[in-house]
């Protein structure tokens, strides 16, 4: 049985030049990233980017536009019809991607929660000691979960525990905002405080005093009768 001869698929015209930036291999491994330049297999693309006339172009014309600007043709939306390509420097494009990923990671970082425990009859010295720690936690950007633990018959003093927690929240007003009022769950009465953004706890400046009366007293200009 005779095998059919191998017939390669269509090739890009030999006069099509390859824009710079195609070789992206590092350490022998190719980066898993956006196809660029002659890696793009679409027959036509939609161009976006600075210093280009946005629109739909045949792939060869889009490559020539990118090369003329000494930039790269980067596929950014392969699922679009036609696929969307951006004309820009590939290294700058990767830098922007890494920066965006870093910002997203910072936003999704889990917020730290610090716990502070009181007894229903906490003395003043212990209270101030824990208040100081709570201020430090909030300044560092952590949430503070504070609770009064009622052991045995001390549950009879739950009103006293509520007053203690509300006082604690009030003393921390400059550094944190109260997320919830005291809630009794089993043997614990709990509040949660979130750190305030820098500057949000500052009081508004008082309006400037009205000095017009003083100015009038010091004004020696005669008044017409």
Which characteristics define this entry?
225 residues; alpha+beta; Ubiquitin-like (UB roll); Translation Initiation Factor IF3; 4-stranded mixed sheet; rod-shaped; disordered C terminus
What does this structure look like?
The chain has helices at residues 59-68, 90-107, 124-139, 158-171, 212-218, and strands at 25-26, 29-30, 44-48, 55-58, 72-77, 84-88, 113-118, 143-149, 176-185, 188-195. The longest helix is centred in the middle third of the chain and has 18 residues, at 90-107. The protein is of the alpha+beta class. Among the domains are: 31-104, Ubiquitin-like (UB roll) (Roll), CATH 3.10.20.80; 113-195, Translation initiation factor 3 (IF-3), C-terminal domain (Translation Initiation Factor IF3). The protein starts with 24 loop residues before the first strand and ends in a 7-residue tail after the last helix. Strands 4-3-6-5 form a 4-stranded mixed sheet. It has a 4-stranded mixed sheet with strand order 7-8-10-9, with helices on one face. The radius of gyration is 34 Å and the shape is rod-shaped. Mean pLDDT is 77; it is low at 9-23, 25-30, 201-209 and 211-225.
